[in-house]
Amino acid sequence: MSDDLSGVWDGTYIQPGTGMVTFTATLVEAGGALSGCVTEPCSNPRCPLRTHSASITGHRAGSVVSFVKRYDPPGYGFDIVQYDGIMNGEATEIDGRWRLPGTSGSFLMIRSGKRAQATATDKRATTPARE
Q: Which residue ranges form the domains of the chain, and what is each CATH number?
């Protein structure tokens, strides 16, 4: 497995007072620079949005990963969140902490198997059926 972080990641973060929130991130890494997007369900019961979208910008140096998540649109208790984590040796997990002014929590991102499944499906599709 390449240590390039580009791809789809399934994640969770723990938010005080709310509990575990799931999210899906799509990352693109080029020369250590990270960009991407995130979607996650709204955890605030008064929020008029069911799903939040956010952009990611950051960097990776060795196993250290840092990025900022910016919600679009900001508001409803969501704005800019700092993430700092460590990538495992197989480049399949990023484990760390997120921070907002006055609060923080843990997060875990696991590389999705979607890319591998799509490759396997494409291979089966091009293999002739037995007669």
A: 7-126 (2.40.128.120)
Output the six-digit token pair for 85: 């984590």
Tens of pLDDT, residues 79-119? 899 999 999 999 999 999 999 988 999 999 999 975 433 33
How many whole angstroms separate alpha carbon 5 and alpha carbon 31? Answer: 11
Do 86 and 95 meet the contact criterion of CB atoms below 8 Å apart? Answer: yes
CA distance linking residue 32 with residue 79, whole number of Å = 25
pLDDT category, 2, cuts 50, 70, 90? low
Question: What's the pTM value of the predicted model, to 2 decimals?
Answer: 0.80
CA 48-105-40 angle, to 5 degrees, is 35
Higher pLDDT, 9 or 16: 9
In 3D, which of 13, 4, 3, 6 has the Cα closest to residue 84? 13
CA-atom Rg of the chain in angstroms: 17
Residue 127, C-beta contacts closer than 8 angstroms, at least 6 positions apart: none
Residue with tokens 């069911």: 50
